[in-house]
Amino acid sequence: MWTRGVALLGDRVFFVTSDAHLVALDRKTGAVMWHHQYAEVEKGYYASLAPLALQDRVVAGVSGGDSGMRGFLAAYSPSTGEELWRFWTIPAKGEPGSETWGDFALEWGGGATWMSGTYDPDLNLVYWSTGNPWPDFYGHGRKGEKLYSCAVVAIDAGSGKLKWYFQFTPHDTRDWDAQSIPVLADVEINGRMRKHADASQPQRVFLHPRSRHRRVPARETVRRKAELGQRRRRQGPSHRGAGHGPDAQR
Predict the structure, then answer these.
(1) What is the side-by-side strand order in the sheet with 52-53?
(2) Cβ neighbours for 1, distance < 8 A, ≥ 6 positions apart
(3) Cα separation of the two ends of the chain
C-alpha cells in the first residue's frame, strides 16, 4: 500500500489504500474507526491520492485511467463513511457531455481523479483536475472532445453538482492530462484584486475566476527551443481549451 498523504478533520485521520479503501483512524490511538471500499479493483480502479477533508465531509478520487475505467469524485461522511454524493468525470449516456464521446463505451472512458483537489470555503466549491481519456494514445475509436477528461472541474461541495469546467486538451491522444493540484490565489489583474483558481497544462498556467468560468489568457511558464516549440504547436495541445457549465463564460 502507498498513498500521497492523509487528511485531518476533528479527531480523525483519513487516508486511502491502493485497493481503493477510504480509512478513518482515531488520531490519538490509531484505532480504525471505519473503512469503506469506494471503488472496485475488478473494474480497473485503484487509489493513490491524499483525500481532501472539508467542514463535514471527506472527498476522494480514483486512479486507473491508463487501463480503462470510469473516473469519479465522491464525498463521504467523516463519522460513518457513508457516501454523500458522487460526480462522474465521464458522463453516462444521455447526460450532458456524453455526446462528446460518440459511440464509445463510456464505462471505459478514463478521466481519473488521482491527484488531490482544493476547496474554497467562501464559495463552498471543490476544484479538481481530471486525467486523460482512454485509450491514452489511440483516438480513432473515441471521436470527440471527451468530456470531462483533461479538465479542471468546479464542484458544489454540498450537492456534488458541476458548477463549471475547463477542458485543457480536448480529444487528448498523448496522455497530456493536467493532473496538478489547483492553487487558489488572490491575483491583481488590471489594478483589481480577483480570486482565481490556478490549474496547469504542460508548459502553461491558466487562471480561472473561482465562482464561474472565464479563462484569463495563459502565459508560457517554460521557454523551450524554437524547433521543439514549433513541433508542439503543430501537434497541440489546444491553446484555447473549452469551458462550460451552468455559470460558465467563454
Answers:
(1) 52-53, 58-61, 72-76, 83-88
(2) 17, 18, 19
(3) 42
Smallest CA-to-CA distance from 202 within 221, 216, 183 is with 221
User: Which whole-number Å values give the CA distances from 141 to 98, 104, 108, 169, 241, in the listed order?
Assistant: 15, 7, 12, 17, 21
- List the domains of the chain with CATH numbers: 7-244 (2.140.10.10)
Residue 175 bears catalytic tag: yes
- The catalytically annotated residue of 175, 177, 186, 247 is 175
pLDDT tier, 57 (very low <50, low <70, confident <90, very high otherwise): very high
Cα–Cα distance, 80 to 103 (Å, whole number): 39
pLDDT for the residue numbered 197: 73
Assigned C-alpha cell, 240: 484555447
pLDDT, tens only, 131-179? 999 998 888 878 889 999 999 999 999 999 999 998 988 888 888 777 7
Residue 209 has pLDDT above 70, yes or no: no
Alpha-helical (H) ranges within the chain are: 226-235
DSSP conformation class of 234: H
